[in-house]
Amino acid sequence: QVQLVESGGGLAEPGGSLQLSCTGAGSLFSLHATGWYRQAPGDRREWVGVINRDDVTNYADSVKGRFTISRDNAKQTVYLQMNNLRPDDTAVYYCSLLSSWGQGTQVTVSS
Asked: What averages of pLDDT result for each successive group of 10 residues across the chain (111 residues)?
């Protein structure tokens, strides 16, 4: 079981930016795909995007062009850079690797 930890959430204004981090998987990040998901109150968990072991990324249409996933193998961290945030991006964000999940980090977009 991998102990993933998300961080970097908080409050942002519409149009603002936040960067989330996912740590805890050590070198496994460079060997396996890492996904980002989010869950708004009352909604199902939604896939946001993924980065695979070859640094190929793919995104949900709702975030394409605004969110970017990257990985720093030296820091053993996967990032979710979120730009041009909108109120409907408000959710708890989770990272996932090898069927393990972190505890999530809250992102709130509000003026």
From this structure: 94 98 92 96 96 96 98 96 98 96 97 95
Task: Give me the amino acid identity at 86.
Answer: R
Residues 6+ apart with CB under 8 A from 89: 38, 63, 82, 107, 109
Q: Please name which of 20, 30, 17, 32 lies closest in space to residue 75, comparing C-alpha atoms.
A: 30
**Collapsing DSSP states into helix, strand and coil, what is residue 89?**
helix
DSSP 51: E
What is the DSSP track for 55-103? Answer: --EEE-TTTTTTEEEEEETTTTEEEEEE-S--GGG-EEEEEEETTEE--
CB atoms within 10 A of CB 52: 14
Tell me the torsion sign for CA atoms 19, 22, 28, 32.
Answer: negative
The number of angstroms, rounded, from the C-alpha of 73 to the middle of its chain's C-alpha atoms is 16
